[in-house]
Structure formats: structure tokens, C-alpha cells
């Protein structure tokens, strides 16, 4: 996110040539990674280059104005709600002390594990006419038909903003929280000494300092809301993504769909660039020589109660409500637990998501590190373009992924046939590796933004010091950057793992024969309109997604404790970026 | 967890991804047939089991909701796909237009399935039909006959429920209206229908029937087989109540007949197990398979002489519209544009 350009930054000419030997290698590696991730987007652009048979005229005169407005309001709504909820809760758990804070520290992350298509179904079940809430209202007031009273319709734009925000705010929470924790106490203490009230301190000092991190979180939430098709279709909210699917599937116009998707990406990219430009002259790295954590505010009385409510509401709405419904429905189908197909699906999900999240984080580190080494503007641009693939509607991106995979397989097959007379068939497409590739393409943005932001917080002075001591770039990364980034890396691993577990459109289209993950099992049941069959696998996604949250919370709590004990002897502490219980 | 060196990351990832690759079955061996399917595995498994029992040929399935045509096209000559099981004439015909199919040349199929449900050039074979009918409240609707045209009559104002106008089922119906009445007439009809809606189109077919149970609407558009699926739903017994609140009326029974659509199969252009694929298609056209399919899916068999399941027969007699399904396929694009044009999915104007 931030790209510090200190006047004394190390340049090729400034350091001994020997110490820069490896840099070219890193750059080459990063370019290779960027190219691989960019290929599906290039395929989409290629698809879009054909003629769309008068599509734009039709769309412009019919659904496009409405779709644009709907998408705008949806993004505005989700953007505002996730920012307010994510930032407020992050500030409360990092800067204040109140009963239950330790629990909320990690519990606030939990809704992240609930897929949007699940929470949408769950809230319709709860809030629809025959659901428990409306039944209670009718019983209470003695109504007997829907025409006798007004009840907010969950299948609406407002409903979509609500359910999407309920599971997407953790992106903002996590990045804002990490940023608040990394903030050195210095500026905050200065402000306090000058008599700033807590609110002023938050608005005028902490918030501006955390802007890059918050921007990462909000843009992730917004891109996820842009690419969503499950929840919006179910709610009948006609977004741009909906028009893209109609164009492709009902009018057999893949070219037109690709054009719409590309146009949408250009707008997303422009918005992200504008946001970065707006803070281009600011630097966010901080000197953390002998820092100490800022003194927290102790909340008591109604303030503590307020904090408690503010933190429990998101967890309640984003997790407890949908999870309770899933648990209730799962109990009707407990025999599934012994079903070998179900167990295989769970194992597939965990294995694929585990490997993919490691690969994604490793690639993101390479991309950001190479940019840091060489200040390569072009590579940074390439990485950022690659990262907006996240905003493409899932199945459309999956079609974009199909093309390079098939090209590679068929090319290799032809080559092997020619050279050795053996046919290799399709190696990657329809294999686990192909799926991992798809996850990398879809979710590199999630890791890239956080890691870019994390690197931005590491002072270039450290790089210079290491160079002076004769360290090669690989050792700087391994011995200086990665240890400092460990909390950021863990948090990136966690989010990408959960995202891969939930991933549906690419998995379903690109998978091997007779191969299921939890997400495809959920979808298969949901597409038969059999919600109770979907409940247990959906719950398993949530539970498997929770496991790393809790595990990492433990690990980082330990890290925090050891760091804290070192702190007394003058060591430095970045603090736990992953919440500790 | 330590992050000393990046290569250790890479090693783990590489090792593990090889493991995953080996999970992928080699689907090209003899004695197999590879099926890409838009129909849920649960639905077709009994059929496939019967096929394997009879022929010894193993079946491999990939189920997806969209994009399988694009996958077959991208895979090209190396595609493992033998057949694509699909629903809706639009999709079957679309696969043919995309050039990813080959003619199914079989006297058995021709003998078993009426020409109405076969592509003249053999590129797709219809296997079952389903009708788009009216589910009417047992309490609030008196009449026993209805027409699609009548749905635009103001007497139904605020009483009709339907899913999205852009859903393939609705598109099929609108396309058939265009084929019968022309675009202008259909547009007027669609506006009338939209203004009679009880609520904005959303949810699936079952939730429209649930709307009848709840008193939100008096009539709903839905496919025939959902009645069977809901009536026999032991896992979610509340759906039995939804079904019990409604009865089925077959529209236009007195004139042109009720709009029907098909589920069917195509053979992939580069099918690696072509012989087995042909055996599968032929098997699916036999009375035995048609019986199993009809029982499992509550759809109508296409092979003459095979009766629908008893439950389906209890819904009443289907008189299917004889309009050729190619006509419906042809008008889908116009139908989709019309739905956009009248802003059907925004719900009633007033």
C-alpha cells in the first residue's frame, strides 16, 4: 500500500554491488509470478475484444442505469457499514479495556468464516413470513395475513447490504486492528499530553495513521461484494454482476459478459488508484526503536456497557444467528458425519485451502519484496492489476482461468507428442494443481494488500543496516523482514485459508471428476433447494475456518507474551497482529 | 511457525500439490464414461448405477451450474468429456451452436424417442420433459382452468408470485409466448403480469409455493416436478404443508397446451469414450431408464408407453404445447431482452 521513498533509501549505486547480486533473481521471480496471475485477466480482455452484437445499446436503454445505481448503493452501503463496524470494534479492542475484550479480540473475526451464499439463505429462513421472527410478531399482535402489517423485506437492497456487511466487516476489523497495534505510542502520547480527548485522538491521529490499512480492508470487502452472485441473486438485487451473468447465460453472449466485466474492472482500478493518489505524498513507516504500547483507556460503567454492545452485535448478527440456524438444521442430518463422501469433501477442502493459502502468501511476499528491492514501478503496477481479479464475478474469472490452463496443457501435450510420441493429455486442468492456481488468481489480492501494507511499516533504515552488514537480499528477507512481518503473514494466511475454503465458482467448474469440496457439497444441496442437506457441510466450513482463527490466536498470544517479557529488557514489540484470547 | 526461508514454503507447496494431483482420477481408461452434468449427482445417481450394473461401464461425473460448455471448448481435442447432461432447450441448443457437440447416430435412440424431442441433426437428445404450470391456492382460487394470457388480467392484481424473469425457466416461457404471439403482444402481456405480481421476483420455485401457503399470493408459476419433490420431502416436512396448500392447474389445456421444456444430453465433439457414451445415451432412452428417471425426478418421460410416476399422474393430465422446442430456443435472446426492457424483475410498477 505505502511505498516509502526516503531520501536516503538504499539504491543500486549506493550499496556495494556484491550485496545486490540476488536482486535480479528476485525481480525475475516476481515478474514470473505476476505474469502467471495476470494470464486469466488477459484471457478475459481477449474474450472481450470480439463483437458483442449491439449489447451495449440494449443494456444502456434497459438495465444498465438500474444496475449501476444498485451496484453503487450496495457498495456505498457495504463500504460505510464495514468501515464503521470494523474500525470501531478494532479501536475498542486495541485501545480500550472493558469486560470481555479478550474474547471479542478474536470472536469479531469469526463471521469471516460464514460464506455470503449461506448467510443470505439463513437470514431469509429467519426473517421471512413463515420464519420465527415474523411468526412471533404475528402471535404478539394477532395478525393473520401479511397485508395487515409491515415488515422489512430481507430480499432487498437493504437486506443485501446487511448480510454482506455482516460477514465482510472482519476484513476491515483485521487490517485496522493490525494497524492500531503497530502504531507507536509516540504520536498518541504527544496528542494526549496536548489534551486531546479520546475521540479527537481517534479521529485526528490514529485514524489518519491507519488509513492505508483501512483502505486495504475496505477495498477487499467491496471487491468481494462486487463479485458476489450467490447472495444478490437470492435476494433479487440486480447488480452489474447479475447483468454479466444474464448476458453470458441467457443471451449466450460471453464476449459481452467479458466486456462488462472488464469495464467494471477498469472502474475498480481507477477508484483504487485515486485512493492511493490521495495519500501518495504521505509516509506511513514508523520508527520503532524503543517503543512501548500506548496506554489503553479503562472503560467503566455505561461506557464499558456500550463497548460490550458494540462488539457483541457484529458477532451476533454475522455469526451466532446464521450458525444457530445451521446447527439446528444439521441436527436433522447428523448421519452425514459418517458419510465417506462428506469426510472426503472436508479433507479436500482443508488440504486445498491449506496448500493454496501457503502458495498465495509466498507469492505475495515475493511480489512485494521484489518491488521493495528494486523500486520497480512497473512490477508494482502489474501486481496491483493482478490483485483486482478479485472483483471479477467468480464464474467469469473461472472461465478466464480455464483458457490459460487449457492452452498450457494442450501446448505441452502437442510438444510431448512431437518429441517423444506420448500424449500427456490435460495435466493441470481438472486437477488439484489447477484448483490451487485458480485460488491464487482469485485471492492473491487478499494477501497482497496486507503484506504490502506490512512491508510499508518496516523502516527502510533496517534494510540499509542489513546491507551495511553485507547481507544479501534473501537473508534480509529471511532474517529481518519475515520475522517482523510474522503477524501480518499469519493474518494473511488465515484470511486466504478461510477464503479458499469458501470458494465456490472456480472450484465447481475446474474440479476433477468425482471430486467434491465442502463448498460444492453445499451448493449441490442448495441447488436442489434442500437447505437441510446443505447445513452440515456449511457448518463444517465455518468450523474449519474457525479452527485456524483460534489456533493462530493462541500462537500469537504466546508470541506476544515472550515479546512482552523481552520488552522489559529493552527489546521491541510489534504486538500480536492476530488477536489473542 | 518460522519464516526463515522462502524456499521451504515452495517445497511444501510443491510436494503437497503433487499429492493433490494424484488424487485426480485418470478418467481416460477403458470401461468408463465421463459425464459433465448440469443435473445434480443425487438426481442422476440411480440412473448411472443402473447403467453400470447393466453394462459394467464406470461413470465419472463433474457437476457444475454454468460454464461447462466453455470448459469443453477450452479443453479442445484433449477434453475428457464424453457427454453433457443439461436442462433447458436453450442450453442444449447453445452447446450445438458452440460447436462442442457431435451427432448422436443411433437407431435405438430414434426408435425410443419421438422426433419432437430430438435435434434434426442429432446433436441433442431430449430425455425428460417438465411443464411450467400454475400452482393455485386450494382455499382462495376457485377456477379449475387457466391460461398464460390470463395472468396479465387485472383480476390477479397483487396475487401472483414468480421467480426472476431472467431465470431459464421464465425465459423459456416468455420465449414460447413470443413464438405464439409475437414480440409486441408478449411485451404487453409481460407488463400486465409484472403489474399483477404480489412481490418483487426473487427466490426459487419452491419459495413461490411457500408464498401461497403463507397467504402472500394466490397463484404461483412453478415447474411440475417441484410438487412431487415437496410432497415427498421427509427431511424438511414443512415443505409438505406448502405443497398441500396448493393444487396444480395446467395452463391452456383447452387450446394450445401447456408450455414444456426438456432436459437432455449431448455428446462431446472429442468424446474419448465415444462407444461408451453412445451406450449411455441409448440406455437413457430405454423404457427402463426412462422409468427410473421419471420416478427419481418427478419429470415426464419422453419415451412413448412409459407412464409418469403415480404421484405425477395424480397432479392431472398434461397436454403439452406442440410448439417445436427449437422455436423456443430461437426466441430466448429476444425473451431475455424483453424481460430487461419491461423491468420485470423490479416488480409491480404501482
Structure description:
Chain B: InterPro entries: Ferric-bd, SBP. The complex is a heterodimer of chains A (about 575) and B (about 350). Chain A is mainly alpha-helical and about 575 residues long. Chain A is about 70% helix and about 0% strand. A two-stranded parallel ribbon of chain A has the order 1-2. In chain A, helix 3 (about 65-95) packs across helix 10 (about 210-225), helix 12 (about 240-250) packs antiparallel against helix 13 and helix 17 crosses helix 18. Chain A starts with about 20 loop residues before the first helix and ends in a 14-residue tail after the last helix. Chain B is about 45% helix and about 15% strand. Chain B has helices at about 5-25, 40-55, 70-75, 90-95, 105-110, 170-180, 185-195, 205-215, 225-230, 240-245, 275-285, 285-295, 310-315, 325-330, 330-340; strands at about 30-35, 60-65, 85, 100, 125-135, 160, 220-225, 245-250, 260-270, 300. Chain B is built from 15 helices and ten strands. Chain B folds into two domains: about 30-130 and about 260-310, D-Maltodextrin-Binding Protein, domain 2 (3-Layer(aba) Sandwich); about 130-260 and about 325-345, D-Maltodextrin-Binding Protein, domain 2, CATH 3.40.190. Chain B is α/β, with parallel strands linked by helices. The longest helix of chain B has 18 residues, at about 5-25. Chain B is globular and about 60 Å long. In chain B, strands 1, 2, 3, 4, 5, 6, 7, 8, 9 and 10 form a ten-stranded mixed β-sheet that branches. The interface between A and B is large, with 91 and 79 residues.
Binned strand content of chain A: under 5%
Q: Give the overall average pLDDT of chain B.
A: 89
Q: What would CATH call the homologous superfamily of the largest domain in chain B?
A: Periplasmic binding protein-like II
What is the CA-atom radius of gyration of chain A, in angstroms?
Answer: 25 Å
The CATH top-level class label of the largest domain in chain B = Alpha Beta
**Most extensive chain contact?**
A-B, 91 and 79 residues
Percent range for helical residues of chain B? 40-55%
Pfam family, one (chain B): SBP_bac_8
Binding site for Fe cation (chain B): 225-226
GO cellular component, one term (chain B): outer membrane-bounded periplasmic space
Family (chain B): Belongs to the bacterial solute-binding protein 1 family.
Amino acid at each position: 500500500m505505502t511505498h516509502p521513498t526516503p531520501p536516503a533509501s538504499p539504491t543500486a549505486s549506493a550499496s556495494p554491488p556484491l550485496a545486490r547480486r540476488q536482486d535480479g533473481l528476485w525481480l525475475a521471480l516476481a515478474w514470473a509470478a505476476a505474469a502467471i496471475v495476470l494470464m486469466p485477466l488477459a484471457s478475459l480482455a481477449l474474450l472481450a475484444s470480439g463483437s458483442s452484437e449491439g449489447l451495449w445499446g440494449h443494456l444502456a436503454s434497459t438495465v444498465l442505469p438500474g444496475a449501476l445505481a444498485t451496484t453503487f448503493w450496495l457498495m456505498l452501503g457495504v463500504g460505510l457499514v464495514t468501515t464503521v463496524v470494523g474500525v470501531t470494534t478494532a479501536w475498542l479492542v486495541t485501545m480500550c479495556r472493558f469486560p470481555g475484550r479478550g474474547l471479542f479480540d478474536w470472536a469479531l473475526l469469526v463471521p469471516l468464516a460464514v460464506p455470503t451464499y449461506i448467510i443470505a439463505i439463513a437470514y431469509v429462513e429467519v426473517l421471512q413470513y413463515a420464519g420465527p421472527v415474523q411468526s412471533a410478531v404475528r402471535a404478539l399482535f394477532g395478525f393473520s395475513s401479511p397485508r395487515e402489517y409491515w415488515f422489512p423485506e430481507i430480499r432487498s437492497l437493504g437486506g443485501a447490504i446487511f448480510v454482506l456487511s455482516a460477514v465482510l466487516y472482519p476484513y476491515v476489523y483485521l487490517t485496522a486492528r493490525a494497524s492500531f497495534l503497530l502504531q507507536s505510542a509516540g504520536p498518541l502520547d504527544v496528542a494526549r499530553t496536548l489534551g486531546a480527548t479520546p475521540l479527537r485522538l481517534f479521529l485526528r491521529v490514529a485514524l489518519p495513521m491507519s488509513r492505508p490499512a483501512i483502505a486495504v480492508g475496505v477495498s477487499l470487502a467491496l471487491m468481494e461484494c462486487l463479485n458476489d452472485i450467490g447472495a444478490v441473486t437470492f435476494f433479487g438485487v440486480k447488480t452489474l454482476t447479475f447483468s454479466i451473468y444474464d448476458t453470458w447465460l441467457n443471451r449466450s453472449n460471453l464476449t459481452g459478459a467479458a466486456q462488462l466485466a472488464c469495464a467494471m474492472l477498469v472502474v475498480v482500478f481507477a477508484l483504487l488508484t485515486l485512493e492511493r493518489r490521495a495519500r501518495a505524498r504521505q509516509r506511513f513507516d514508523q520508527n520503532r526503536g524503543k517503543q512501548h504500547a500506548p496506554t489503553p483507556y479503562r472503560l467503566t460503567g455505561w461506557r464499558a456497557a456500550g463497548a460490550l454492545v458494540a462488539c457483541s452485535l457484529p458477532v451476533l448478527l454475522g455469526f451466532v444467528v446464521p450458525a444457530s440456524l445451521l446447527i439446528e438444521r444439521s441436527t436433522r442430518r447428523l448421519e452425514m458425519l459418517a458419510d465417506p463422501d462428506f469426510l472426503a469433501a472436508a479433507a479436500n477442502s482443508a488440504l486445498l485451502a491449506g496448500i493454496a493459502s501457503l502458495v498465495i502468501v509466498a507469492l505475495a511476499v515475493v511480489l512485494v519484496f521484489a518491488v521493495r528491492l528494486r523500486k520497480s514501478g512497473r512490477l508494482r503496477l502489474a501486481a496491483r492489476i493482478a490483485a483486482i481479479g478479485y472483483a471479477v464475478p467468480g464464474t467469469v474469472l473461472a472461465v478466464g482461468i480455464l483458457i490459460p490452463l487449457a492452452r498450457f496443457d494442450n501446448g505441452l501435450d502437442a510438444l510431448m507428442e512431437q518429441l517423444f510420441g506420448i500424449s500427456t493429455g490435460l495435466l493441470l486442468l481438472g486437477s488439484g494443481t489447477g484448483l490451487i492456481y485458480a485460488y491464487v488468481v482469485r485471492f492473491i489480492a487478499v494477501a497482497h494488500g496486507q503484506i504490502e501494507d506490512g512491508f510499508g511499516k518496516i523502516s527502510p533504515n533496517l534494510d540499509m543496516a542489513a546491507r551495511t552488514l553485507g547481507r544479501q537480499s534473501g537473508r534480509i528477507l529471511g532474517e529481518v523482514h519475515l520475522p517482523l512481518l510474522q503477524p501480518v503473514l499469519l493474518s494473511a494466511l488465515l484470511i486466504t485459508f478461510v477464503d479458499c475454503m469458501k470458494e465456490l465458482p472456480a472450484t465447481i467448474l475446474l474440479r476433477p471428476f468425482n471430486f467434491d469440496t465442502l463448498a460444492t457439497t453445499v451448493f449441490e444441496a442448495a441447488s436442489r433447494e434442500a437447505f437441510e442437506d446443505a447445513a452440515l457441510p456449511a457448518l463444517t466450513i465455518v468450523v474449519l475456518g474457525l479452527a485456524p482463527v483460534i489456533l493462530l490466536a493462541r500462537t500469537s498470544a504466546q508470541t506476544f507474551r515472550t515479546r512482552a517479557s523481552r520488552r522489559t529488557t529493552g527489546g521491541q514489540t510489534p504486538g500480536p497482529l492476530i488477536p489473542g484470547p | 511457525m518460522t519464516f526463515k526461508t522462502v524456499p521451504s514454503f515452495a517445497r511444501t507447496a510443491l510436494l503437497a500439490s503433487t499429492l493433490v494431483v494424484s488424487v485426480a482420477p485418470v478418467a481416460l481408461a477403458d470401461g468408463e464414461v465421463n459425464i459433465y452434468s448440469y443435473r445434480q449427482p443425487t438426481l442422476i445417481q440411480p440412473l448411472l448405477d443402473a447403467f453400470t450394473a447393466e453394462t459394467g461401464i464406470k461413470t465419472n461425473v463433474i457437476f457444475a451450474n454454468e460454464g461447462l460448455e466453455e470448459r469443453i471448448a477450452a479443453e479442445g481435442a484433449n477434453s475428457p468429456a464424453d457427454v453433457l447432461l443439461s436442462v433447458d432447450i436453450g442450453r442444449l441448443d447453445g452447446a450445438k451452436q458452440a460447436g462442442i457437440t457431435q451427432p448422436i447416430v443411433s437407431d435405438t435412440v430414434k426408435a425410443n424417442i419421438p422426433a419432437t424431442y430430438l435435434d434434426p441433426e442429432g446433436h441433442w437428445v431430449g430425455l425428460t420433459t417438465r411443464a411450467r404450470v400454475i400452482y393455485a391456492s386450494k382455499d382462495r382460487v376457485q377456477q379449475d382452468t387457466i391460461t398464460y394470457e390470463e395472468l396479465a388480467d387485472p383480476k390477479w392484481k397483487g396475487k401472483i408470485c414468480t421467480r426472476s424473469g431472467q431465470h431459464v425457466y421464465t425465459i423459456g416461457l416468455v420465449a414460447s409466448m413470443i413464438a405464439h404471439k409475437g414480440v409486441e403482444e408478449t411485451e404487453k402481456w409481460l407488463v400486465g403480469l409484472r403489474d399483477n405480481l404480489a412481490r418483487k421476483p426473487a427466490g426459487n420455485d419452491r419459495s413461490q409455493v411457500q408464498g401461497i401457503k403463507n397467504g402472500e399470493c394466490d397463484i404461483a408459476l412453478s415447474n411440475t416436478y417441484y410438487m412431487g419433490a415437496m410432497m415427498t420431502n421427509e427431511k424438511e416436512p414443512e415443505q409438505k404443508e406448502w405443497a398441500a396448500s396448493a393444487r396444480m392447474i395446467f395452463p391452456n389445456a383447452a387450446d394450445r397446451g401447456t408450455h414444456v421444456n426438456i432436459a437432455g444430453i449431448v455428446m462431446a465433439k472429442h468424446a474419448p469414450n465415444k462407444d461408451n457414451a453412445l451406450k449411455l445415451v441409448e440406455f437413457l432412452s430405454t423404457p427402463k431408464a426412462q422409468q427410473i428417471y421419471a420416478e427419481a425426478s418427478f419429470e415426464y418421460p419422453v419415451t412413448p408407453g412409459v407412464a409418469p410416476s403415480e404421484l405425477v399422474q395424480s397432479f392431472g393430465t398434461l397436454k403439452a404445447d406442440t410448439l417445436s422446442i427449437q422455436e423456443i430456443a430461437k426466441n430466448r435472446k429476444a425473451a431475455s431482452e424483453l424481460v430487461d426492457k419491461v423491468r420485470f424483475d423490479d416488480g409491480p410498477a404501482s
